[in-house]
Amino acid sequence: MYILIPLCLLIAALFMWQEKQEKWVNAVICKGLASLCFIILGFLAAKGSSGSNLIIAGLVLGGIADVLLNLRYVFKAKGQLVFLIGILVFLSGHIMYLAAILPMNQQKLLCIIASIVLTALLMKWIFTKITAAKAFKIFGIFYIGAIVILNCVAFGNMISSFSPFTAVFAAGSFLFLISDIVLILNTFGPSSKFSLRVTNLSLYYIGQLLIAFSLSLL
Question: Domain boundaries in the chain?
């Protein structure tokens, strides 16, 4: 099972190289294979609980969204639509993660209030750094809001009921959040940098691997 972790990171590195070379079809294939690694890891690590099934569903949706986001380079005429669909699928994955860990939370109202405040502050800052169409901004608010509440609940669980699972899952969700912020800044900011792309993807894959691995601790 554990060989999937370095294998995922190796294929992800190959994907980034293919993308830098603008070999879009090869990049999509590599990205899909890298995502397949964390999906398989989740299946192998899971122990069959209802929470495990929801987290696996989130991993699968994440893998589908990965492919969709890069298909925008293959089908450039429909690039924006494909990108938005990919974000919507990612959002569905976050909802699966949230549904899995929310029943464990002992301070649901406090986490919701904290997430609303943090989302508002974060989006206010992001909007000063990017230029994007209204549709993308609306999607961004809901998307970032979903992953912020996921993080608030995950860290709430870790604080109130510390365990290897809650700690590893919280770490994974936090890296996922940071990777998404970097993605937004790099995609809609004044200029796109390959170094930020590498940062975004590295944090993303490590985050998803941690979430998948956390199932072995549930």
Answer: 4-217
Tell me how far apart the alpha carbons of residues 3 and 15 are, in angstroms, rounded to a whole number.
18
Predicted TM-score (pTM) of the model is 0.93
> In which residue are the tokens 């998404």 written?
180
Residue 208 structure tokens: 């998803």
Which positions ≥6 away from 62 have C-beta within 8 Å?
A: 35, 38, 90, 93, 208
CA separation for the pair 120, 83 (Å, rounded): 23
DSSP state of 191: S
Cβ-based neighbour number of residue 193 at 10 Å: 11
pLDDT band of 176, cuts 50, 70, 90: very high
Q: 């990777």: which residue's tokens?
A: 179
d(Cα 73, Cα 51) in Å, to the nearest integer? 35
Q: How many CB atoms lie within 10 A of CB 81?
A: 11
